[in-house]
Every structure is written in C-alpha cells, then in structure tokens.
Write a structure and sequence with these properties.
Blueprint lengths: L3 H26 L23 E5 L21 E2 L3 E13 L1 E7 L21 E2 L2 E2 L2 E2 L1 E12 L2 E2 L1 E5 L7 E3 L11 E5 L9 E14 L17 E7 L1
Length: 232
C-alpha cells in the first residue's frame, strides 16, 4: 500500500507532465514562419499622358479656287493660279514641346516638273489628284510667318527626327512626312515649349498644260495633305 508521500509524488509527476505537454503545444503555435495570416495587395495604377494639343486651320482647312474656265488654261504651258494663304493654329493646354509633319495624301498625282515656288524640289510639290489617269498639277506650301505665345517665332526644320534642327526664314513644307517643323522663341538652336502657335502658310498652285488634260469634262482639283502633330 502506497504511503501518503508516494501518492502525493505520483500526483505531482502527472501534473508536471501535463503542464509540459501544454507548453510544447503553445510553443509550436508561436514558432516564427509557421503562423498563418490573411493578406491583401495594394496596386498603384494610372497613365501619364502628354498635354493635349489641337491643330486647326482657318476656313475649315479648305483653299477653294472656285470655277476655273478651261479656256483660261494654256494649252502649251503650265497655268499658275492666284496665290492663296491659310492660317494654321496649334493650341495646347499647357506649354509643351511639339512640332508637326506633313503627309501628301495625293503624292502619286503630283506633276513635279511644274514650277510652283522657285527652287522647290520634287518632295515639296503636292498632288492635285488625277482624272482618267491624267495628273492635274501640283501645289506647294510655305511657312511665311509664325507667332508663338503672342510673340514672334522662328521656324525650325529637322530631317532626323528632332536630333538636330536648322532654321529657315521661310520653310517650304515637305509632303513626304520626312521632315519635322517646330518653333523657337528667343535664342537657341532647338525648339522650345509653347502653349500656342499660329503660322501663316502660302499656297502656290500650278495646273499642267491644257493639252495634257481632258478639258472636255469637269476636272475637280483634289489636293489633300495631312498635318500631323508630333510631341518632341
């Protein structure tokens, strides 16, 4: 038969064993790296967009020569139509560095042998469309004056995507999209940022000699060029 002291010792041993088991379970529950937790992600999104700019021509971008009597055309030489002008306005929401290029949508119809503006090369002569496979003529565009942010500006031209620029007093616009045009106020050799620019454009048009055209029918002039804004 167990003595009182032996009985008490047995109870204490069992209590200690139970406490040790509980302690080991608690230790496992709090071991770093073994805890389980919920998570949530925060993403930062958005898009940085360039300052919006618009290009607008006065008169809706139409240079209208009206009705041209066939009898007024020379049968043996080109006929030069009266010179016209149109104004291009470029407006931005804030000062931004920009330019434009020109693409002749009727380039295949240009009669490049005609003289429009003296000294203009073939890529500066735009097409006027064709009738029955006969090319009508050619026209050229020339920047003659420009104002940027209410002050005088200089026209600049780049043939290498804006890497370098050349200043001209009056730039004859190229219709194959290979040249960029931009503007400079103050001193420098490269364009600077502007909020608004207005440019006066001279339009010089020539019709091919009458003997090359089907003058027994109406011949609509169909010149079309696209001015494309370019952020620099």
């Amino acid at each position: 038969m167990k003595s009182f002291f032996e009985f008490l010792e047995e109870i204490l041993v069992k209590k200690i064993a139970t406490l040790a088991a509980v302690a080991s379970v608690v230790a496992v529950m709090f071991v770093p790296g073994q805890a389980s937790a919920e998570s949530a992600e925060l993403r930062i999104t958005g898009t940085i967009t360039p300052t919006a700019c618009t290009l607008v021509f006065t008169g809706g971008g139409v240079v209208d020569y009206g009705k041209i009597p066939a009898k007024s055309l020379s049968p043996t030489a080109q006929t030069n139509l009266p010179e016209k002008s149109i104004q291009l306005g470029m407006t931005c929401e804030a000062p931004v560095l920009f330019g434009f290029k020109v693409v002749d949508e009727r380039a295949a119809t240009a009669v490049t042998s005609l003289e429009t503006i003296a000294g203009h090369a073939a890529n500066k002569k735009f097409g006027l469309g064709a009738v029955d496979g006969k090319k009508i003529g050619a026209y050229s565009l020339q920047l003659v004056s420009q104002t940027a942010d209410d002050g005088p500006a200089v026209s600049l031209e780049s043939g290498n995507g804006g890497a370098t620029w050349v200043a001209f007093g009056q730039i004859g616009l190229v219709g194959d999209g290979s040249k960029l045009v931009s503007f400079l106020t103050g001193s420098g050799t490269a364009p600077n940022a502007h909020t608004s620019v207005t440019a006066d454009i001279r339009v010089v048009t020539a019709i091919d000699k009458g003997s090359n055209l089907p003058l027994t029918q109406q011949i609509p002039l169909d010149g079309l060029s696209t001015f494309e804004l370019v952020y620099l």
